[in-house]
Amino acid sequence: MWSRPCDYALCSRTGTSSTRVLYLFPSWIVSRAVVLSSTWKDLTGIGASWTLRMPRVISLNGRTFNLIRDRRLSELMKSLENGEASIYDVAWGGVTLLEVRIISALCIQEY
Fold it and tell me: What span, in angstroms and rounded, lies between the C-alpha atoms of 80 and 74?
């Protein structure tokens, strides 16, 4: 059967669409996650992009996240440089280093 495309303004897609799927492996298997991201205007056309990442899952109460919350940025930079931490690390639930920094900045307002 053939169907006519929707010509209602709210049906038509404008701009670029994107999606992100996060799967966290059970911690007893491996401390990793799989993140599949895609952006597209036309899923198969020019400009379609698929990204697969496997970030390390670390404790939200671990050293890396504590350095961020405590604003000890020079120690964080050293951890990033020597490979103890990565900008791609996530906590359980997919929380990123940047998200923790933003949340901590909002919770502790400086005057």
Answer: 10
